[in-house]
């Protein structure tokens, strides 16, 4: 089935199909929420635009601080068990959010949600590998990302009539529907059989001893390079829209077209373009190509700022295509290298450290694009293009050093046995 083009989009086995249900249902609810969250907060909770911005920034900081401790907890109690708990945690706080009418309570709620959001990705990555095996790990992650993108889009479209209605219960129904989606995800996840995780070795005293990943400099170097490349998220949500409306002659409506181009490409191309990343050398090449693609995108954006109206439109569409290629390739490479180099007994903790880049770019990315790149104009985009290309090129030597470090630090041992069982 996998050998055919359409078969490559089918999740492997019952476990893969359950994970697909979780991904789509969860993203459907999240798409509903994201399309209306700012409107709900301002019109019905009563926040100012500034208060909403500060509340979301606070949630990002809480997520950043909580990611590694939750990853460590996942290694101790089992990633699937913690993932179920966090899905239910999100359901509870989204329910509370629907009845929130105060800026302080709103901030508390979104911070509690931010704590869970940041830990979901590394936990899911471990659960996927444990459920479908190493041979299908990258492909399954690609399918899940494809389904999430599709779910976000469908959810956002479904929110449109509720936004038009404009009543408090219309918005409240969006939040409650998102809460229900997480309950469904938790119920499906609780029935998932996975390979029992390796026991965690007892750590020494002190924070750095307890969180061994923070002392693993070769792994941190690779994670830092990934953080640079993952700036494509802020490029998509902040950099490109603001550049189009403020510094080019392209029509404002083009922003919606560019977003649609990104979404369609991510849905159709994530699975086939992730196939090379199923091996370590292929994942390294994905990172290199991602850096090049993002660099080309930045140079196109610089050109669009100097071009006439219709040339700018064509160049901006091409830049979005290049950016989406970079986004797809970066995510595929990250799934393979972050997991491959994470020690078996601390895998969730290490993946949590690797995923800190996503939280970091949420905090720093908007400031970088608004205060530096766009402010500098074409020179800012050219400088960012160089940064992306250099980061992609540095992944290969960083990966080689990390692989050598792992070979030196892991003693020879016989094959270990695993059993298929719930992780708690």
Brief characterization of the structure:
By secondary structure, the chain is an all-alpha fold. The chain is 79% helix and 0% strand.
Order of helices and strands: HHHHHHHHHHHHHHHH
Helix content: over 70%
By DSSP, the count of extended strands is 0
Could you name the ranges where pLDDT drops below 50 across 5 or more consecutive residues? 202-210, 412-422
Which percent band covers the strand fraction? under 5%
SS field, number of helical segments: 16
Radius of gyration: 21 Å
Largest sheet: none
The whole-number mean of residue pLDDT values reads 86
- Estimated structural class: mainly alpha
End-to-end CA span: 33 Å
Shape: globular
């Amino acid at each position: 089935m996998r050998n055919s083009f359409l078969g490559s989009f089918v999740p492997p086995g019952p476990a893969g199909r359950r994970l697909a249900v979780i991904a789509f249902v969860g993203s459907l609810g999240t798409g509903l929420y994201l399309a209306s969250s700012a409107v709900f907060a301002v019109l019905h909770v009563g926040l100012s635009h500034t208060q909403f911005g500060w509340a979301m920034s606070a949630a990002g900081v809480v997520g950043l601080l909580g990611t590694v401790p939750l990853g460590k907890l996942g290694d101790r109690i089992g990633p699937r068990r913690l993932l179920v708990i966090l899905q239910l945690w999100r359901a509870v706080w989204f329910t509370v959010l629907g009845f929130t009418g105060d800026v302080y309570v709103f901030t508390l709620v979104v911070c509690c949600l931010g704590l869970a959001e940041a830990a979901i990705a590394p936990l899911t990555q471990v659960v996927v590998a444990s459920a479908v095996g190493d041979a299908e790990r990258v492909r399954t992650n690609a399918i899940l990302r494809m389904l999430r993108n599709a779910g976000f889009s469908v959810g956002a479209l479904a929110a449109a009539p509720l936004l038009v209605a404009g009543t408090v219960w219309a918005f409240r129904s969006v939040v409650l529907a998102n809460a229900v989606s997480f309950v469904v995800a938790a119920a499906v996840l609780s029935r998932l059989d996975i390979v029992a995780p390796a026991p965690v070795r007892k750590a020494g005293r002190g924070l750095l001893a307890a969180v061994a990943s923070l002392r693993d400099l070769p792994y941190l170097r690779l994670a830092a390079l990934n953080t640079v490349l993952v700036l494509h998220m802020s490029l998509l949500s902040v950099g490109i829209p603001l550049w189009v409306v403020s510094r080019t002659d392209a029509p404002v409506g083009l922003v919606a077209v560019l977003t649609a181009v990104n979404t369609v490409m991510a849905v159709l191309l994530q699975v086939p373009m992730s196939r090379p990343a199923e091996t370590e050398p292929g994942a390294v090449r994905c990172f290199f190509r991602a850096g090049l693609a993002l660099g080309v995108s930045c140079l196109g954006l610089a050109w669009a700022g100097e071009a006439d109206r219709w040339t700018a439109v064509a160049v901006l569409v091409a830049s979005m295509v290049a950016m989406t290629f970079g986004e797809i390739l970066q995510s595929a490479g990250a799934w393979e290298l972050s997991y491959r180099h994470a020690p078996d007994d601390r895998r969730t903790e290490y993946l949590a450290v690797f995923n800190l880049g996503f939280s970091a770019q949420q905090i720093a990315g908007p400031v970088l694009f608004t205060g530096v790149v766009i402010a500098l104009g074409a020179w800012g985009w050219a400088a960012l293009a160089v940064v992306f290309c250099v980061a992609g090129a540095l992944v290969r030597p960083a990966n080689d050093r990390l692989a050598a470090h792992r070979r030196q630090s892991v003693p020879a041992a016989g094959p270990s046995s695993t059993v298929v069982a719930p992780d708690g």
